[in-house]
Design a protein that fits this description.
about 475 residues, alpha/beta, Fumarate Reductase Iron-sulfur Protein, Chain B, domain 2, Rossmann fold, 3 domains, six-stranded parallel β-sheet, 10 strands
Length: about 475
Amino acid sequence: MPARSSSFKAAAAAYTQKRDTRAFLRGSMTGYLAARAQRETEFQDWQAAREAASAAKAEAVDNLDRYLPEFVEKIEARGAKVFFARNGDRARDYIRGVIQAHDAKCIVKSKSMTGEEIHLTETLEHEGYEVVESDLGEYIVQLRGEHPFHIVAPAMHLRREEIRELFADKLGPGAGTSDDPTALTMDARRAIRQKYLEADIGISGVNFAVAETGQMVICTNEGNGRLSTSLPKVHIAIMGIEKVLPTLDDLALLLPMLATAGTGQHITGYTTMIGGPRQPGETDGPEEFHLVIMDNGRSTLLADAEQRDALHCIRCGACIYMCPIFKNVGGHTYDTTYMGPIGSVITPHLRGLQEWKHLPSSSSLCGACTETCPVHIDLHHHLLHNRRNAAAAQPAWWERLAFRGYRTLAARPGLFAMAGKAGRLFQKLASPLLGSSIDPAKAWTRCRTLPNPPERSFREWWAERNGTANGRK
């Protein structure tokens, strides 16, 4: 069994034993579900909005060769320096070059899943730079040395008392004296606020990029994005090629949809539109602005007409909230940047199908992800597509042998009938072993009840009913 698949199964088995944590997470999701349901009713027609959002993303992705250059041309005209990175290594090299050119020591970073994707924070810390995550959830998991548990709520797996203990341990005297949310937030604020003033460089992600105006958009609920991008003299933003939207009208639709699906809000607390470095006469903003536009496997997905709509994802995390597998195995079990259904669809494209093919198989195929997606991505069918593609590219020898054997039996009615009788007999003989340590079907019966074998096959019943021999006239 491949190492990643084995690691996933071991982590999932361990997490499922944490009944208190799972119950806590289910409880914390209840508020989100109620808030989202209320926000959806406030749209004139939520389903029509989903269709319109899907169409807007499809227009952008299907015509990326037109909208991406249009966006770049307009943002470069205002002084932005744009770099196209083929992969994570190229993106990190460019960012490292900007840091070294400014002899930067302290870096403050707003939330960026694209940055998580290329392990940017860990890389820079390993090279000796001080990197401070300014999003509260990201800051908490950074102090714990963990990766985000969820793409929208990185620390949703932690209780208040765990965060209080963490702050008391990591933030020094005066911190972690109360587990009141406001007090904990103020503890983090006191620690991070000074870093904004000390930072030489600010790094952010990008939620959307508008081709019509040449502006990038950052959505946050804490204001940390604005402090990270405005106070340091240099701002570096990282975005995937799929973040482009054609017009401001498209943005006006997708902003409330992102907030509704992601957190159950009307709109995020802070929506910031950035069109480049500080212009003459402006009082704030960076003196220098760099935009890294990253492919990192996305063009391969773009070339796949069957699954291209996975690039429509706006990173709201709704499919993850709804996924029964995520609820039972947790975000860290996936061991990748994007967890849950969307992660199981795009990670094999971004990081290698054979190495990550266990993720599409770790699904109930209930369709809740597709039903909840605000931009109508056909997620549960894409999970099946990934399974099919993985099997076609590298089929297991035992599967080929099994299907060849079945083909032989199915083509010979006499043998097929004998095999059915032998199977029913074997099941009867093995029934006393079910549930025991030597159960031959343990992988199945551990969480399922094996049905009792029928006394006769359908063919035998049909023959008796119709007075025919062996089911034939």
